[in-house]
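Q: Fold this one first, please.
A: Sequence and structure below.
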Amino acid sequence: MALSLGQGSGDFAETSGRIQAFHIGIRNSVGLLAPDGFTQANPPVVTTNVSGQLTGITQVGVLGATVAFTRPDAGNGFIGGPTTGTADDTLIIPVGLFINDANGNAFENTPGVASGRAPYFSGQGCFGVSLWETLNIETGATLTYSAGDKLVASRNGLLTNLDDDGNGYESFENSADGSGTLIGVVKVAPDADNDLLVFDLRI
C-alpha cells in the first residue's frame, strides 16, 4: 500500500509555502518579525541553483514552512528569514519553522502585517512541508532525501540535508562544516506518492 500524506498541488496556493502539522509542538509567537521578513525575495540570498519547490512562488516575505531565525541585527527579540553580511551573522540561529506566510494570501486577512509578528512551530512535533531544497546550492546537483536524514537550514532558509559551507546557513556563516542546528529528522521522503517532506522536529 502506498503511503499518501500530502495533498495535490491543486489543493493549496501555488504562490506560497505550506506546512502540515501531524503532531504539534509549540506554536510560538514571541518576537517581532524583522522588517525584511515582510519584503524578502524568494529565494532571499542565493539566486543560482534555486530549489524547484520555489517554482511559481511570487509572494514576498517569509513563507510558511521556511526556517525562522533569531535576528539580533534587526533588534532585541526579533525573528526573520536568513540574511548575510551583518555583524551578527553568528547569532542568526534557527528557532523553528514559520507557520504562515508573513503577508498572508489573497482574499485572506493579514495578521502578520497587523501584529508585526509571525508565529512559528518549535518544541518538537511531526510536520510535512511543501518547501525544501531540491538542489545543492553550490554545485546544482540534484538532492535526494531518505528516512533518517538530518535536516538543517540552508542559506535560503529552506530545509536541506547538506550541512557544508556551500549549503548550510550556519556552516556558511561560521565557515565550519557540520555546524548547523539540527532542525529535524526525515520520516518520509517526498516521492511519487507523497508531495511533502515529512520529519520529526528537533528544535
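Q: Good. Now the second chain.
A: Here it is, same layout.
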Amino acid sequence: MHCSVFLGASLDGFIARKDGSLDWLKPFDNSGEDYGFNEFFASIDTVLLGRKTYDVVLGFDRWFYAGKRCMVVTHRPAKSVHGEEFMSGTPSELLKRLEADGSKRIYVDGGALVSQFLGAGLVDSLTISVAPILLGEGVPVSPNLGKDVTLKLTEHRAFPSGMMQLKYSTK
C-alpha cells in the first residue's frame, strides 16, 4: 500500500485560510496548468479525506473525487452525496481497513488528516505546490505534527504561474 499527499500551500506554509477557504488558489487554477494533478489522480484508487476538507469541497461547483473510492474520516454523522463513505479510527486502523477492502494507492487529503498520517509515519510521498503568495495566517501544512519528519527531495519543478512544485519521499 502506498499513501500520497498532494497539496497546494502558500509560501508561508498555509494550505487554506482560517475559515478553510481556498480562494487564494484561484489565480493559479486559471493558469491552464494542472500542476501534475491529473496524472497523480490517475495513479490512485482511493481518496481518504478529513471531514473539514470534505465540508469545504462539497461547496465546490464540481466533485473533484469522481471516479475514485472516497472515504471521509469523521466522528460526526454525515449523509453521502457522491457515493462517499464515512469511517473513523487511527491512521493505522484506517489503512488496515482500506487494505482489507483492496485499496492499494491512497491519496490522503486535508490538513489535520495529513498531519496525523505524517506523524504516524504512514505517508510515502508528499507533493507540495508552493504558490507565490503570503497569507499571513491560516491552516498550516502540518498542524500539531508533534515530531520531526525527514523528507528526501525527489523532484522539483517551476511553473510559469510562479508556482514551485516539490516532491518528497518519506522513506
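Q: Anything worth noting on the second one?
A: Residues 2-169 form a domain with the Dihydrofolate Reductase, subunit A fold (CATH 3.40.430.10).
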